[in-house]
């Protein structure tokens, strides 16, 4: 169950990062409120997952899900540029996440 919590925490990290962007520097109320709620949920689920998943593994996977997820949201919803270097960086992050999961107790 901890891995599921960690996955959801990572998805919530993507949501709060996107909401932060949409808040326009915290000048828009609804995206700011969404950001605060999803940020709190993300941190809470990360903490719950860390009860059984080692710190280094949990934190690395959480930030990796957030980084790659934000990258994909940026491309699909915000029309951010896509190029070989950026895609390769995301592939390397995902590769690192898989390796971290496979080598964790």
Q: Explain this structure to me?
A:
- The protein starts with a helix and ends with a helix.
- The longest helix is centred in the middle third of the chain and has 24 residues, at 55-78.
- The chain is mainly alpha-helical and 105 residues long.
- The mean pLDDT is 95.
- It has one domain.
- Helix 1 packs antiparallel against helix 2 (29-49), helix 1 (2-22) packs across helix 3 and helix 3 packs antiparallel against helix 4.
- The protein has helices at 2-22, 29-49, 55-78, 84-102.
Strand fraction: under 5%
- Rg from C-alpha positions? 15 Å
Unreliably modeled segments: none
In whole angstroms, how far apart are the ends? Answer: 15 Å
- Share of helix, binned: over 70%
Helix-strand category? mainly alpha
Q: How much is the average pLDDT?
A: 95
Biggest sheet architecture? none
- Give the number of helices: 4
Tally of domains: 1
InterPro entries: EmrE-like (IPR037185), Small_drug/metabolite_transptr (IPR000390), Small_multidrug_res (IPR045324)
Family: Belongs to the drug/metabolite transporter (DMT) superfamily. Small multidrug resistance (SMR) (TC 2.A.7.1) family. Gdx/SugE subfamily.
Pfam family, one: Multi_Drug_Res
GO biological process, one term: xenobiotic detoxification by transmembrane export across the plasma membrane
Concise structural overview:
By secondary structure, this protein is an all-alpha fold. It has helices at residues 2-22, 29-49, 55-78, 84-102. It has one domain (2-102).
Which characteristics define this entry?
Small_multidrug_res, Small_drug/metabolite_transptr
